[in-house]
Amino acid sequence: MRKLSRSSTAASSSSTNGAPPPPSPSAAIPASLLDPQLPLPRLFVFDLDYTLWPFWVDTHPTPPLKTTSSRTAATDRYGEEFAFYPDVPQILQFLTRAAAPSGPIKLGVASRTSATALARELLKILHVPVGEGAGEKAKRAGDVFDAGMEIYPGSKIRHFEALQKRTGVAYEDMLFFDDESRNMETERLGITMRLIRDGLTWAEVEKGVEEWRKRRGYKKN
């Protein structure tokens, strides 16, 4: 599945042939994320559109959506496929097994899309791996976000207030990935936000974690 233009629609994008294939997933987890001497944030929060997936869910897919046999993509009424950015399934898999100093890491979603029901439906259709090796298990992407999914229009200050109330995690222990600079306002709460431009990758996760560690005063020995 290719990245869709921010100005395209599902109908127009489905009629475009010969688009280049998406990049392959990164080969390895960055070493800095595996360093036992350096902590990870307690709560990772992700935007959806152009962060976890390369489209606007309120304009590009046209219902009804159907799952593919691999359960890693969905097709819409026009046969167009919609899936996560290539690195996203492995990133979510890693984070569900990783731990912060105080225990397991929690994952959440903060999206201001108006297509709340469609976004939630897509997160039920798309599956991500949670085990390792041949025959690894997979689960609905929506079930991975154990901190909750705040998906509705409005300031993301409201989204994070809800996430904080639900989880009890301090804002300073949250790391947020989003593609829109206007959402930098969430940093007023004490959150670290990583502004990304071309979807979530291992490199972006590493840079976000490094910035969070820097602000918290953690340094590698």
UniProtKB/TrEMBL annotation:
> Which residues are the signal sequence here?
none
Stored PANTHER family: MAGNESIUM-DEPENDENT PHOSPHATASE 1 (PTHR17901:SF14), MAGNESIUM-DEPENDENT PHOSPHATASE 1 MDP1 (PTHR17901)
- Looking at the record's lineage, which domain of life comes first? Eukaryota
Q: Whose protein is this, by species?
A: Cordyceps fumosorosea (strain ARSEF 2679) (Isaria fumosorosea)
Its protein name is Magnesium dependent phosphatase
Q: Which GO terms describe its molecular function?
A: acid phosphatase activity
| InterPro entries according to UniProt | HAD-like_sf, HAD_sf, HAD_SF_ppase_IIIC, MDP_1_eu_arc
Region annotation Disordered: where it falls in the sequence: 1-30
Q: What is the lineage of its organism?
A: Eukaryota, Fungi, Dikarya, Ascomycota, Pezizomycotina
Could you tell me where the Low complexity compositional bias lies? 1-18
